[in-house]
Amino acid sequence: MSHPAARSVHLWFDLPRNAKCVCNEVCVSESQRGSYFCVIGFSRGYSGIQELGNGKKMAIFSVWDSDSNTDPSEEHRVQVTSSGEGVEVSRFGNEGTGGKSMMPLEWKLGEPVHFKMEASDLDGVWTAYSCYLKNGLSDWFHMATMKTIANGELLNGVYSFVEDFRRDGASHCETRSAKFGDCYSLDGGCQNNCKKATFTADSTTPTLNINAGLCDNKFYLTTGGPTENSDTPLNCCIVKSPD
Fold this sequence. Notes:
Elements: E1 9-13, E2 21-30, E3 35-42, E4 45-51, E5 57-64, E6 79-83, E7 88-92, E8 98-104, E9 113-121, E10 126-135, E11 141-149, E12 159-164, E13 176-180, E14 184-187, E15 190-193, E16 196-201, E17 210-215, E18 218-223, E19 237-239
Antiparallel strand pairs: 1-12, 1-16, 2-9, 2-13, 2-14, 3-4, 3-12, 4-5, 5-8, 6-11, 7-8, 9-10, 10-11, 13-18, 14-15, 16-19, 17-18
């Protein structure tokens, strides 16, 4: 049986619903060309870092249209209300439709990149989602703010994932691995630290060279190459040790 890509693996974080702010970080230990490490995904979009097929490294933040499978009329599409210097904004298609922002980011193996997502209900119909990031000792950089029709929804279904998007029939032989956390939400001055995450994987390439668990009391994901599913069975919870 041929496998065009390494299997996509996910962590679904146990956080309160409708959070106004979520923070998370990624520290990549192994990457390959054609890799995406989602740091904060949610029901309306996602943000993270990429290594493109040409080796160039980027940050990306995208938000889906309210009905992303039909490419809605212009007045119902995602609107980019602001973006940081050097950030390229555009629309995307194929796997749904929406707004996309990208910027060069020379992230390094073994060094964390921090992301923060903020959500604001504007009028009960449109919600604004703002993405910030910082690399190393830098200050928070505002990547972009986009608004979409979400009918009051804020940040729900928070997750991270590792994806092989090269899909050339050989990329599944290469390992991609990263640690995530500490992930937490902020609401009304209260910090909710994530202590539990559920490990899942896509069904398109049902291989078992995937793994997830805890390393230095942070959640990690690994896919591809000689990886063995030795730490956490699929669809099971990973629980962090008490502080």
